[in-house]
UniProtKB/TrEMBL annotation:
InterPro entries: Rieske_2Fe-2S, Rieske_2Fe-2S_sf, Ring_hydroxy_dOase_asu_C_dom, Rng_hydr_dOase-A. Keywords: 2Fe-2S, Iron, Iron-sulfur, Metal-binding, Oxidoreductase. This is (2Fe-2S) ferredoxin. It comes from Nakamurella endophytica. It comes from the Bacteria. GO terms for molecular function: 2 iron, 2 sulfur cluster binding; iron ion binding; monooxygenase activity; oxidoreductase activity, acting on paired donors, with incorporation or reduction of molecular oxygen. The keyword Metal-binding applies. PROSITE patterns: RIESKE.
């Protein structure tokens, strides 16, 4: 099949194989998810020394935990002896040490090898050298970000720069004090679609009028399809008779008191490559993290964050959760509808980006550079 010539004002999407080729997915795992800063878990997911969570980062399983001093640590979830998984559960507590279930090698909460059967008769085993392999960690927005690279990229030049690109300055996000907020609700979605379909979907609002009736009620400018995530660095205003960012436009919860005037009655959204979306409204912040599991499967974990006083008081957050939960379901259903067609002969050369989606073209250029094309 020959490639279709597109008029100059239109650009092609990525060819279908970018969404179906396991080899390309493996390349993305190695060059993107295992190299960049990856948002792995919320700090409160591991509240105490010995608490842990395991997450998939690229092709690796990573343990996020806290040491005895309460500091965040992250390790590859692989025993240095013969490679058994150290933690097989998604979350829990190991108490004072990690112990491998196979031959009982035992590592302290900083990853150092502290005990093994007959260890004293094995003088060649250096306890630090044969400790768990630590990975780089950074805490920001109350989340634990990890990089599996030997030399991680600058957090400032990558993650924080994305915020500057979208919001003008990091301070515009800082006003929400996201690190101090509490998780009011978490919903995990298992999406049968390539992670890039989810990113592309999040970046455009061309679909909003078609699939998001509740969202366009609250944010009327999204109904014309031009608002787009790309254009909302000035914020999208709530509709005139809308009281809050809720499924029926009714009043929201206590607003975050540190917001600037121009953040009132507004919705802001940013994408932080490669796998985080942040949505900000006056009374809550919604943070999505994608965990790409396979070329055609992505787990998306979504947190709704409110003032701690709101969460502690037991106030009903369901109307605000319901709005974006529906948006998520609508978006992921659309992504799942595209995924099977990515292997169609008709999509061999990709599809078309209309003018309001041209920033998705920039995402594709970024991707191609990241995987070394
Ligand atoms: Fe872990 Fe042997 S594989 S102790
Ligand atoms: Fe959407």
């Amino acid at each position: 099949m020959t490639s279709t010539q597109l008029p100059e004002s239109l650009i092609a999407t990525l060819p279908g194989r970018y969404y179906t080729d396991p080899g390309l997915f493996a390349l993305e795992q190695a060059t993107i998810f295992e190299r960049m800063w990856f948002c792995a878990a919320r700090g409160s997911d591991v509240p105490r020394p010995g608490s842990f969570r395991t997450v998939q980062v690229g092709a690796e399983s990573v343990i996020v935990s806290r040491n005895r001093r309460g500091e965040i640590r992250a390790f590859l979830n692989v025993c240095r002896h013969r490679g058994a998984r150290i933690c097989s559960d998604g979350e829990g507590s190991v108490g004072r040490a990690f112990q491998c279930m196979y031959h009982a090698w035992t590592y302290d909460l900083d990853g150092k090898l502290v005990a093994a059967p007959n260890l004293t008769r094995m003088p060649d085993i250096d306890r630090t050298e044969y400790g768990l392999r630590a990975v780089h960690v950074r805490e920001w927005l109350g989340y634990v970000w990890v990089s599996l690279a030997d030399e991680p990229p600058s957090f400032e030049d990558t993650v924080l720069q994305e915020v500057v690109n979208r919001l003008g300055e990091v301070a515009n996000l800082d006003h929400y004090e996201v690190d101090t907020l509490s998780v009011g609700r978490r919903i995990v979605y298992d999406v049968r679609a390539n992670w890039k379909l989810i990113v592309e979907n999040f970046m455009e609002c061309y679909h909003c009028a078609t699939i998001h009736p509740e969202l366009t009620e609250v944010l009327p400018e999204f109904a014309d399809g031009y608002a787009a995530q790309y254009y909302v660095n000035h914020g999208a205003a709530f509709g005139a008779d809308v009281e809050g960012f809720t499924v029926d436009g009714s009043a929201g919860l206590d607003p975050i008191p540190t917001l600037a005037d121009d953040q009132d009655r507004k919705y802001y959204a940013i994408t932080i490559k490669p796998q985080v979306f942040v949505n900000m409204v006056p009374d809550h912040v919604i943070v999505h993290r994608m965990y790409p599991m396979a070329v055609d499967r992505t787990v998306v974990e979504c947190d709704w964050l409110y003032l701690p006083s709101v969460v502690e008081s037991g106030k009903d957050v369901s109307k605000s959760v319901e709005l974006f939960h529906r948006v998520n379901q609508q978006d992921f259903e659309a992504c799942e509808r595209c995924q099977p067609a990515m292997s169609s002969r008709l999509y061999r050369d990709g599809g078309v980006l209309v003018p309001s989606e041209h920033h998705i073209g920039a995402f594709h250029e970024w991707l191609r550079a990241a995987i070394g094309e």
